[in-house]
Description:
- This protein is mainly beta.
- The strands form 7 sheets. The protein has a 27-stranded mixed beta sheet that branches.
Amino acid sequence: MTSRHKLACSTAALALLAAASASAQTAGTTVVPPVDPAAPVTQPPVGDQSDTAPATDEAPSEDIVVTGLRASLERAQSLKRNNSSVVEAVSAEDIGKLPQSSVADSLGRLAGLAGERRSGRISGISVRGFREDFVGTTLNGRELIGIGDNRGVEYDLYPAEIVSAAVVYKTPDAALTAMGVGGTVDIRTVRPLERKRALIANGSFEQNGQPSRNPDFSNRGYRFALSYSDKFANDTIGVALTAATTSSPVQNEFSSVWGYDDGAIASGPNAGKQVVSGYEAAARSRVLKRNTLAGVVQWRPDDKFTATVDALYIDFADTGISRGFIEQLAVASDGSGVLSADGDLVTSARTTGFNSVLRSDPLDKQGELFVIGGNFEYAATDNLDLKLDLSRSTSSKNDTRGESYSGLGRAGLSTQGPNTIREWTYTDRGLMFANNSQSFDNYAAVKLAGPQSWGGSLAPITELDTPAARAAGIGFAQAQDGFVNSALFDEYLNSARIEATYRFDDSFLKSINVALRYSDHEKSKTNQGFFLTAETYPSDGPVPEDARRGVADLSWAGLGNVVAYDALGLINSSFYRRWDAGSLEPDRLGDTYSIREKVWQPSIKADFEVQTDFARIFGNVGVQGLITDQRGTGFTSLVASNLRVQATPISDGAKYTRILPSMNVNFDLGNGHTLRFAASKVVSRPRIDFLNPGSSVKFRNNVAEVTSTDPERGPWLSTGGNARLRPYEANQADLSYEYYFASDGFVSASTFYKKLTNWNVQNSTIRDYTEFYIPGYHRAVSSDGQTVFTPATFLGVDTTYTGGLKGDVKGVELQASVPLRLLTGALDGFGITGSAALTDGQLDNGSDIPGLSARVFQGTAYFEKYGFSARVSANNRSSWLSEDRGGSNTIAPLNRAGQTLIDAQIGYDFAGSGIRYLEGLRISLQAMNLTNERDTYRDSQTGLFLRNEQFGRNFMANLTYAIF
């Protein structure tokens, strides 16, 4: 362990009690006392109390001021004890101060939830074993669209400064506008009429513990925010505004293998053993820049009418660079290059040589989200309330991922440099290299051209067949010097909801809510791609002087330094000629589509409460209808005899109706004991990409695939969607017991069972592609351009999506919040919270549920007293099935290894310092990923390493000042 690592760990130990702002496990739909018992998703955020809320024996005072974790825990526990739906929640300590820097960070710490780190940040959330594509998300009770590829919301895009609370419904009720098989997350913004006047400035400095391996990117970032809330006109008008900007860097030491080949070694003592077939190692740097504006205006002229208009705008850019090698690691077929083996795995070997491809891949992802909504409430009588809610959401994203190839010269030219011979050793961090025969840090040696003959798809481009190219003995196969993938997403959602709530006097039936919602939703994807040919073709040349940036560091993988240049600048300039892949590759238009859904949601819900001799019984029962008309448009696409893509428009869809009953029954047994039971039917609408009615037939022209006789590893592949899919469906039941032994102390145990009655999956079959074969086109060419390979088989994989699969998911969740002052007064201010979620489930065909970890553990130890606050948190989850963007802008499944993330925070609040001008000041230091945990992906059957990403530790210094 280095001295720097020892220092980091020592700092973590001293910060054992790292400061938590205000997260807690709570429950959501408050029946006693509710602001509106019929509409839980439009109630004020957790921690907000309406001026008009009726009081009860257990209700807190109307003006709740929460300034620390302990008060927040008490408030959260009170809500949990009196609520009818089982939920978890996190609330802001003050305006714009969630416990972590984004909604994703905070949600990932709640019981029964698990955060998923992507590109170094917690972005995805699984609820009870279901990833965010199967979790409904709302903003102030309205269905929320995301900026991602599918339905799932990218929670890390929502900064803490705009959020008052986030509530996760594990058991639904009929009034929820967006439902999911896993649950529903409701993100809530400030309601100024329920807040005190405030103006708060927030600033943070961020530092990656891992240095940037790329010279043109920094490992430092920042966050600034300004939040304002005030009331006017005798407290009848409330205004809340927030502006926030973020620049957050990520460094990544990335390594992955193409796969393992048990046929590469045909003779000798290591014959038949698994050996790595190919490898990628890259130094990756990226920075997320996000600007956010949020505003809320409330008008309450009297006790009968309230109008609320809120809007949110997020503009973000996620840019970066990946520099490293991608190459085949061929070994001698007689096994003479094997240096060591362990069982059936070759653990170290010397390659026979490959002309290395040095890739410089820029990332440029730009997006916008705009949401505006209006909610109008009118008390028609003392017992009857009417509501109208209108909203519109739009989002757009352009996700561009480029590829620029360089090496020791263009493939096929007599001037191309020699192959690279390497020795590699298999480790738990990936492959480590040594004794490399070539170096790539010299701009005089590295040429900006494709070192491999990967341009088979460029056969129709006659402009490449020049006299100079023929004289050099090369052609279209050697003309690919890069590529650009660009996925464009556009989405809108318009919705309207009307509802009426009638409250009963002196009856066990407290209220009945009747509502009708209509939504019109459309999401489209345009899959674009462009082959790149350098202006130097058919020759090659050095990196232009004005594009040079120094060298990138790959020494962590044993690969030394490599030249670093501005690949994005070159791609966007005239240096490369572009060839539209949409006319050359069928999977571009095959993955271009638009999905539109029109949905009616009628619902009725009844809230009840009755006092018996043994318990106070309260809860709700209701039913929601889901009347859906879905339609998709796309293309069926293939390569015709003229070597160009032939695309035929296609449209398809379905109409369906689902009835979704729900019931929540709670028994307050007295003396702190509560028993809960819930049963419901839940759905998640089909994934957007599954609904694409289009399809394509693709030929992969790599030598390894063209020469393979295995249909699953061969060159032929077709993919298609299914616009007639029905929603994912489940019947679920919940049972929980809670014991409250202090105002901020409780333990609980719950169990749940979900019977999956319909699940949509990808199905693959083997088909014959002979009818699509075009002689002279469907082939592969060796890197020297001298050998042509024809397909070894005409059989290949055909994939599509079907429903009807069933399955089961069941689990047990344990929670505890224990203030240690109960043991002894000397520990006043100390406390611990923790949870454990044990989940078991799979589909009937034996496949895994996306997002399900069998074990998820969360623990926090904290201290808060005399202005000091400290916290240390650990989050552990076992392995799970995830996904990531694959080739040609498509989504591919991945198996992720389990991980443990440890964070710490320490801070001080000057509110009680007695220093006048510092009384509004809070300072804190936060450290994330203290143990430098890696993200690892493994083969689900063999457990062998497939991909490893190391992001390092991250540190943040924060200053918050309440001006008033």
